[in-house]
Structure formats: C-alpha cells, structure tokens
C-alpha cells in the first residue's frame, strides 16, 4: 500500500524540505538569518519530495550542471546534492520512489548523466549509480619544499571574504573542466558553499595565484586547525586545504609552494585530491608527502546510456559489444558496440554483460573492465573482451570531480 506521494516540491516547501534534509544529515538547526543568505540557492526546480498527510517525509534535490567526459565533451548533468528521509519513515521505500521519479524526470528532459557524493556506499548502486572517481587524502609534513622549476612563477595573494565571493565563480569558470568528471559550478552552488566555508565558524581563507601572464589561474581555500594538546602543547598547526583548483600543473604547484611556506605550520593536509597528482615528486624530499587514504568520490549514473556512450572518445583496438541491464530506466536496456570510432546500438551478440552501475564505473575511465570482471561485476562471454575494453576505456589522466555538492 502506498501511504505517501512523490511529486515536485513547491516554492513554499523549500524551507521545510531543507530542514528535513538537515535533520536527516544531523546538521545543526538552520537560523532564519542563514536561510536568508542561502535560501534562494535551494530552488524548487529539480527537487522531488515525498509527502504523507501533506507533510514532507523525504527529499531528493538536484541542480542542473554540466560534466566533462573523456575526450573533452561536456554533457548536461544533474548534480544530486541532497537526499534524506525522515527518521520515522526510513526503510519503507521512500528513497526508492524518489530516485525513480527523479531519474525518469531527468530522462524525459534529455539529461545525459546524474552524479552525487554518497553518505554511505551501500545506498546508490541499486539505483544505477557507480563509483566513477576516487579522491586521495594527502598529508605533507614540514619541513617540505618544492623542487626548483616545479612552478611557473607568478604571485599569490590572499582575498578577503567579499573579494572571494566576487572573484571565485569567474575564476573557476576560467580554469575550465580539464579533467573527466569535473563539473560546472552554477551560480546557485556558490552561496551555499561559500557561506559554509567563509563564515567565521567555517574559518577558511582564500589564496589566488596570478600567472606570469598577469591572469589569475588558480585558487585554494584553507584553514588552520590547532593540533596542540595538553600532552603535546608544541604540536604545530595543521593547514587543511579544501578546494585547490588550477588551470595548469604549474599554477597548482605554485599554490602548493605558497601553502607550504606559511609559518608555524606542522602539516598541510587535503582530502579529495586527484589520485594521480604528482605531489611527492614535486618535493625535494618525496617522503614528506604521503597519501593516507583513497576513497570513493563521485558516483555517476548514465541516464541516457546511448547518448553518453556516443559522447566520449575511446582508445585504439577491436570493438566490444556490451549488453546493459537497467532496472530503473528500462529504455537503456540493450546491446551497445563500443570501438575506436565511437559507440552506438547494435544487434550483434554480447561480449560482456553488465548492470548500469558497473557501466558507470567504467565510463569516466576510473576502473578497468578486467578488474570488474574479476570481481564478478561483469559477465564475460568473450574471454578476450575485458582486455579490449581496458584499452578502449583508458584515459590519459585519472578522472576527478573536485567539487563538493
Ligand atoms: C547524495 C546525498 O545526499 S547522500 C545522503 C543520503 N542521506 C543520508 O544518508 C541521510 C540519512 N539516511 C536517510 O535519510 C535514508 O536512510 C536514506 C535516504 C539513506 C535511505 O532512504 P530509505 O527511504 O530508508 O530507503 P528505501 O527504504 O527506499 O531503501 C531501499 C533499499 O536500500 C536499502 N538501504 C537504504 N539505505 C540504506 C542504508 N543507509 N544502509 C543499508 N541499506 C540501506 C534498504 O534496506 C532497501 O533495501 P531492499 O530494497 O533490499 O529492501
């Protein structure tokens, strides 16, 4: 029996659904003052609510963006930025109904992909989302210095809060979506992100790098965390770097040099960095930089499998025929031939069979088909096909999202 309804939310339901999400995520109660600053960013379009007796019991929110895919194409995507069910309604199919409504709506609108960051890794696979990028936590202990020639020169300056709000959106846009998995940050993303980080409680500061050509080309947000304890009062500050973006490797290196030069710092740390960022080899002493964790970052969902497969480029070699199953969006079911010349529907027999979530793991180049076949996530019909698929889907750089939403 269905005892709740799922439908798009109205303008009047924005605040109640935001509060519902906050409670599901154990966030502090939002003040009216903060809502006045960020409320416009929680716009009704793209949000589905579940309602019992006209009261919200569940929410899924998505905003429209674009995402870079291998080969450089940029596709329309939904960034699913808030999913929550009221604690007295969980495990009764509410989020299943919300996911179905949202994905069918995106398919009707011609959105190619949906993506999210998952609070728990057991939730979204059943809805066709797969881990499509990973992020590394890096830790650099002082003293650490960059090698000569690692960066292109230029200058770094600190921004005040007003300058950061005014300058960062255009700077991120200029930096561009240069890795598969990077997403555009629409204007509604910035108030929520900056409010959280640049407030007194957030405590982040912003550094911007200007390249030798006089143009700003990189920025970083960072804050100081006191590590001293009664037992170890001399332990220096930890500098936590949150959002480091740059147009090219030299600009990114220049910001690392700046961050490593700040006085009274014992350690510089950053979560969700690209796993192939060459930090240790930038340093005179490579052992000063350590990767302490690699974790799942962006979860991707191919909403339009044919369109998404056709939009990316592929490596050399013999084609592979994939048979895709998709329980939530059955229009995606079928066989697709993927080769160096592109991808599209085919009547040819399948070489590999897989579900939508596993296809999402392959799509940006994060996982090898051979690995997923060994793990039993791909059914192998032609034993030579996983190796061929490895070559076809391989990318020059690892995919990376770099934007939290
Ligand atoms: C993108 C983001 O916003 S990530 C944030 C996600 N939100 C949160 O973590 C907030 C706290 N949690 C919640 O609000 C809810 O528990 C949700 C959204 C995770 C799940 O909502 P529910 O309505 O309980 O999910 P629903 O009842 O549709 O469950 C579907 C299936 O997933 C399983 N499932 C759902 N959540 C979980 C979980 N956290 N752990 C294990 N299994 C889960 C259910 O057991 C069920 O399995 P079944 O089909 O085999 O019976």
From TrEMBL:
Keyword Nucleus: no
Biological process, per Gene Ontology: aminoglycoside antibiotic catabolic process
Residues that, per the record, bind acetyl-CoA: 83-85, 91-96, 119-120
Entry keyword Acyltransferase: yes
GO molecular function per UniProt: aminoglycoside N-acetyltransferase activity
Active site (UniProt): 124, 405
Keywords: Acyltransferase, Transferase
EC number per UniProt: 2.3.1.-
Family note: Belongs to the acetyltransferase Eis family.
Subunit-structure text: Homohexamer; trimer of dimers.
Protein name: GNAT family N-acetyltransferase
């Amino acid at each position: 029996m269905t005892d709740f309804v799922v439908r798009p939310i109205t303008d009047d339901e924005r605040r109640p659904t935001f509060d519902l999400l906050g409670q599901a995520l154990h966030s502090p109660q939002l003040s009216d003052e903060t809502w006045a600053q960020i409320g416009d960013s929680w716009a009704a379009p793209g949000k589905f609510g579940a309602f019992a007796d006209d009261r919200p019991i569940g929410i899924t929110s998505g905003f429209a963006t674009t995402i870079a895919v291998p080969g450089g194409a940029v596709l329309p995507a939904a960034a699913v930025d808030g999913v929550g069910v009221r604690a007295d309604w969980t495990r009764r199919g509410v989020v299943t109904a919300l996911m179905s409504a949202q994905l069918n709506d995106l398919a009707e609108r011609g959105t190619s992909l949906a993506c999210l960051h998952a609070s728990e890794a057991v939730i979204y696979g059943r809805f066709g989302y797969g881990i499509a990028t990973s992020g590394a936590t890096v830790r650099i202990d002082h003293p650490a210095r960059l090698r000569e020639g690692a960066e292109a020169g230029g200058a770094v300056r600190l921004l005040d809060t007003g300058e950061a709000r005014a300058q960062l959106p255009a700077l991120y846009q200029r930096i561009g979506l240069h890795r598969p998995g990077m997403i555009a940050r629409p204007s509604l993303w910035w108030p929520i992100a900056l409010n959280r980080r640049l407030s007194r409680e957030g405590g982040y500061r912003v550094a911007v790098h200007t390249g030798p050509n006089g143009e700003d080309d990189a920025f970083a947000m960072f804050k100081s965390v006191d590590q001293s304890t009664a037992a170890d009062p001399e332990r220096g500050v930890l500098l936590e770097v949150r959002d480091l973006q740059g147009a090219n490797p030299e600009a990114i290196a220049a910001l690392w040099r700046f961050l490593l030069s700040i006085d009274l710092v014992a350690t510089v740390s950053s979560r969700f960095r690209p796993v192939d960022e060459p930090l240790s080899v930038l340093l005179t002493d490579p052992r000063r930089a350590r990767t302490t964790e690699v974790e799942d970052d962006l979860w991707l969902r191919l909403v339009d499998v044919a369109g998404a497969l056709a939009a990316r480029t592929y490596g050399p070699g013999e084609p592979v025929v994939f048979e895709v199953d998709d329980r939530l969006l059955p229009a995606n079911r079928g066989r697709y031939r993927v080769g160096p010349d592109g991808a599209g529907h085919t009547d040819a027999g399948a070489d590999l069979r897989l579900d939508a979530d596993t296809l999402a793991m392959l799509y940006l180049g994060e996982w090898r088909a051979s690995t997923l076949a060994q793990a039993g996530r791909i059914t192998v019909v032609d034993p030579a096909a996983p190796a061929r698929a490895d070559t076809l889907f391989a990318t020059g750089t690892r995919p990376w999202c770099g934007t939290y939403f």
